[in-house]
Amino acid sequence: MKKKDRPRTATLPDGRILTVADLPPSSTRWVASRKEIIVNAVAYELISRDEALRRYGLTVEEFDSWCRALIDHGPAALKVTLLQRFRK
User: The organism sits in which domain of life (predicted)?
Assistant: First the structure.
C-alpha cells in the first residue's frame, strides 16, 4: 500500500474541517457548495488539481473559473443562476 504525502484533513479559514470523505461522488450534480468543496480540497492539497479534473471530468478552464469566482466574489458566485452577474 502506497502512503500519500497529502494531508487527510484541512481546517478552512472559517473553522470548518474538510476531509477526503467530504468530497462528492464523481457522478455528482454540480451545486455551488460542491464546487466550493472541490476548490478547497485542491487548495488545501487533499487532492491534486489533475486528480480533481480527471475524477470529475472537468476542463482546466472550468475549474479555473470556479477558483477565480470563489476568490473574487465568494461562494455565491459559484451558483449557476448568478453566473452572469459575476462574469467579467
Answer: Bacteria
